[in-house]
Structure formats: C-alpha cells, structure tokens
Design brief:
seven-stranded mixed sheet; single chain; globular; binds S-adenosylmethionine; about 250 residues; alpha/beta; about 20% strand
Length: about 250
C-alpha cells in the first residue's frame, strides 16, 4: 500500500477531507507513518489494526496528540466496534473470507449521515487477485479455507514451488474459481450489495483497487486513466530501482 500513497491515495484523500481513517495491516508501519503525518496536519483521527505490528507504535500514539490509535487484534474482531470511517486502507490478510467480511463490517458500521467509506485495497493484482493467502490458517473458518501450503509462486505457472514469490507464506494450492482471492472477494461484495458502488482496479506492483459509492462528486475525485498511468510509471521506476520519483 505504501507505494501508492503519494501517487493515488494522498491526492484522493486531500479531496475527501476525512475525519477518521482506518488502516488494516500495518506491518513495519511504512504506510502508517505517511497516513499519520497527513492526519496530524489535518486533524484527522486514525486507527490502524494489525495483530503483530513491527514498529514503535506506542511512541507514535504518544506523539499524535490523541489522533492515532493502534489496535493489536484481527480486523474481524474489532471493525464493527470502531468509530465509523470515511476512508479504509485494506492490506491485511489476503483471502476471500477476510476481505469480504471486512467490507461487510466497514459498510455496516457507517456514519450517521449514511455516507459510505471510500476503500483502497492493495494486492488486487497478481498473485492474490484470484488466490487466497492465509497469514494464520487457524484464523479462518474451516468452511472457507482452501487447500493450501507454504509454497512460492511464478506468474507463468499456477502451481506452488519450494522457491518463488512469498514461498514462506500459506498460499492456496490453486488459482481462480469461486471465493478465491482478494479481487474476487471485492467483486462478490459489490454484486451482493444493494448500494451503488464503483470499483476501479489498477495493474502494477501487485495491484491497487478503489471502491466507492458512485456519486458524481466521487467520480470527479478518482481519475482512473491518470492513476493507471502513474502506477505504470511507478512500476517502471521500481524495475529500474528509482523509487518515489513519480510526479
Ligand atoms: C502486507 S502487510 C501490510 C503492509 C503495509 N500496509 C504497508 O503498506 O507497508 C500485511 C499485514 O497484515 C497483518 N494482518 C494479517 N492478518 C490480519 C488481520 N486479520 N487483521 C489485520 N491485520 C492483519 C499482518 O500482520 C501484516 O503485518
């Protein structure tokens, strides 16, 4: 998620002017720090959720003047009880069950004026668009877990190998099919929802998607052609090892 902050997320958030942002999946806090810096400048509350944050979040909480709170739990244990958000940044457990139910809780817990939050998702491209990954398979109900193993992935071959991308993580044995992967979860949520939702998905750097209520104002904020162009350029910069230069 962190790679998309400057080129796609921050410019959108500046127009949305949120009062509360939720982040699911903080890891080392790279994206969390960027979001917090925006929140401090703009007096916006910020809740991050991760069962195992790998950074000094206590100091960040202390220095945030009450704006930042880190919740060290699983998203699905806590989302329904949080203050409703205007923006959700979703980059936690990359599987159908978790993402579908995160959306369900976030949209059910919406603001009193009924505005729906704008959701940004990382990992809606290869490999997790159409394949589940489980940080801890025991967190997922048996009825929703796919056959899986620790194994690495290659773009050109759907099987798992001892080597390959993310070979240290539990990945579903097969790609595609029903209820498999992050993008599948979002698409299924959109088709089950009674709201007028718009989903934009962008390729590059494992994929970014944006889900929002299809109001005219929201359509003016998100310019898909412009975002895809910037992500393509950013992907080239990463390939060449020249980070964060895209304007
Ligand atoms: C890909 S990393 C997040 C990277 C971060 N967003 C960034 O851009 O730097 C995913 C994180 O999600 C956390 N995670 C896994 N399952 C989760 C869940 N159910 N709820 C919240 N966080 C979860 C993991 O502990 C891990 O730190």
């Amino acid at each position: 998620m962190k790679n998309f902050w400057e080129i796609a997320i921050k410019p959108s958030i500046e127009q949305l002017a949120p009062t509360h942002i939720i982040e699911i999946g903080s890891d080392k806090g790279f994206n969390t720090r960027k979001v917090l810096s925006y929140c401090i400048e703009n007096n916006c509350r910020f809740t991050a959720i991760d069962p195992f944050p790998q950074f000094d979040y206590q100091t960040m909480e202390k220095e945030s003047n009450g704006l930042f709170k880190m919740v060290t739990d699983l998203s699905l244990n806590v989302l329904k009880d949080l203050e409703p958000a205007d923006v959700a940044l979703i980059d936690g457990d990359h599987n159908w069950y978790t993402v579908y139910n995160e959306l369900d809780q976030i949209f059910a817990n919406r603001k009193a004026d009924k505005t729906l939050p704008v959701c940004f998702f990382h990992d809606t491209g290869w490999p997790y668009a159409r394949r589940d990954m489980y940080y801890n398979p025991e967190n997922i109900p048996k009825s929703h877990i796919k056959p899986h193993a620790k194994g690495g992935m290659f773009i050109t071959n759907p099987e798992l190998f001892n080597i390959g991308f993310n070979n240290n993580l539990y990945n579903a044995l097969t790609e595609g099919g029903e209820k498999n992967g992050v993008l599948t979860a979002i698409e299924d949520f959109v088709s089950d929802s009674s709201h007028n939702l718009t989903l934009y998905s962008f390729d590059g750097l494992h994929g970014l998607s944006i889900l929002f209520e299809g109001t005219e104002q929201n359509h003016q904020i998100f310019s898909p052609f412009d975002i895809q162009k910037k992500i393509a350029l950013l992907t080239e910069y990463h390939r060449l090892g020249q980070f964060y230069q895209v304007r």
